[in-house]
């Protein structure tokens, strides 16, 4: 993670006076770490260490742009820890500007249910032209349907003014999480923000809004971009551990067609990433359902269920051991096969960078 900031800093620094401010490394600058690194972090058992490293990498001032770039809403498993970090983000967003603008942090504080805190911040914003209006409005009781409706009306008015983030905040104030995440996805083009809000507001990794985001937004993005890592993460949270394993090695077109995932064009990476086989070998034995997915890849069991919900039950005695044995054989076969294929085609394969997290 530290290397992500170091490389971006170098990419933004002119190499010589003759460059006149232009950076020859501009094309190297990245908006985020790779999804591959995020998914390894998601399955890591050292998340406290990763979180501390993330905070240190941005000099202890974790803002939303940093959290998104490092994939914190994706790989951080604990909802309670995510809530704590969202409060840190809210405070840092508020403190970032010289004017201390309450609108910069309202979305995060409303997600945490801290309306009174935002009301207090508006008391200190004497310079803001909306202070009087907001002080009066936030003094109301938003457990009352009347004021929730008023908040929703304000949200739609803000949408028409293209103040999208603030509109999402008012949707949360009006108790409409679904509308708030839709703004994040459609207007802000930020599915990570939608995921973070859904997990915090629903206080769960299994809430209906979050599952809808995974099924109808994240999976189509993963298939469109040919990103097996992101797809595996979405299937894992959807409790389709069999598909989380299968997507690492199975042709994406086959899975998308079978599950009826609506994507016009399915992207396929121009290289075979050997680390996919490594993740496959790590995940195949984590759960019985993942072991079943391993067996399905080898073609020795029936096709996977079409539904993205529910857990497959295997009742035959000795089935788990048989599936894991098949997984051992197939993981070796696929891993070696992909490596040999890459070698024959002389394809450049990016290495997994452990320094991304240390």
Automatic annotation (TrEMBL):
Name the UniProt record assigns to this protein: RAVE complex protein Rav1 C-terminal domain-containing protein
Region span, Disordered: 1-25
Organism per entry: Asterophora parasitica
InterPro entries: DmX-like/RAVE_component, Rav1p_C
The organism's taxonomic lineage, starting at the top: Eukaryota, Fungi, Dikarya, Basidiomycota, Agaricomycotina
Record-level GO BP terms: vacuolar acidification
Domain RAVE complex protein Rav1 C-terminal: 29-299
CC per GO annotation: RAVE complex
UniProt-listed PANTHER family: RABCONNECTIN-3A, RABCONNECTIN-RELATED
Pfam families: Rav1p_C (PF12234)
């Amino acid at each position: 993670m530290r290397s992500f900031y170091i490389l971006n800093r170098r990419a933004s620094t002119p190499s010589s006076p003759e460059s006149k401010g232009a950076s020859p490394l501009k094309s190297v600058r990245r908006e985020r770490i790779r999804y591959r690194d995020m998914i390894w972090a998601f399955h890591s058992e050292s998340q406290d260490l990763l979180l501390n490293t993330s905070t240190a990498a941005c000099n202890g001032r974790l803002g939303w742009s940093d959290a998104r770039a490092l994939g914190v809403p994706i790989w951080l498993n604990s909802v309670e820890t995510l809530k704590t970090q969202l409060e840190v983000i809210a405070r840092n967003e508020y403190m970032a500007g010289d004017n201390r603008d309450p609108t910069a942090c309202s979305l995060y504080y409303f997600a945490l249910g801290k309306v009174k805190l935002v009301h207090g911040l508006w008391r200190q914003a004497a310079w803001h032209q909306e202070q009087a209006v907001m002080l009066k409005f936030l003094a109301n009781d938003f457990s009352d349907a009347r004021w929730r409706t008023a908040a929703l009306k304000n949200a739609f008015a803000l949408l028409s003014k293209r103040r999208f983030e603030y509109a999402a905040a008012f949707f949360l104030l009006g108790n409409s999480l679904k509308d708030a995440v839709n703004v994040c996805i459609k207007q802000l083009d930020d599915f990570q923000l939608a995921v973070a809000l859904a997990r915090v507001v629903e206080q769960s990794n299994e809430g209906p809004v979050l599952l809808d985001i995974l099924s109808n937004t994240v999976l189509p993005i993963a298939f469109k971009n040919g990103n097996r890592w992101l797809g595996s993460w979405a299937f894992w949270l959807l409790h389709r551990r069999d598909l989380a394993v299968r997507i690492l090695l199975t042709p994406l077109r086959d899975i998308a067609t079978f599950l009826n995932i609506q994507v016009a064009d399915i992207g396929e990476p121009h290289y075979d990433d050997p680390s996919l086989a490594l993740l496959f070998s790590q995940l195949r034995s984590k759960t019985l359902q993942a072991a079943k997915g391993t067996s399905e890849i080898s073609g020795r069991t029936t096709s996977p269920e079409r539904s993205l919900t529910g857990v497959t039950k295997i009742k035959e005695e000795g089935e788990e051991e048989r599936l894991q044995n098949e997984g051992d054989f197939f993981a070796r076969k696929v891993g070696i096969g992909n490596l040999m294929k890459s070698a024959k085609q002389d394809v450049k394969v990016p290495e997994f960078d452990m320094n991304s997290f240390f």
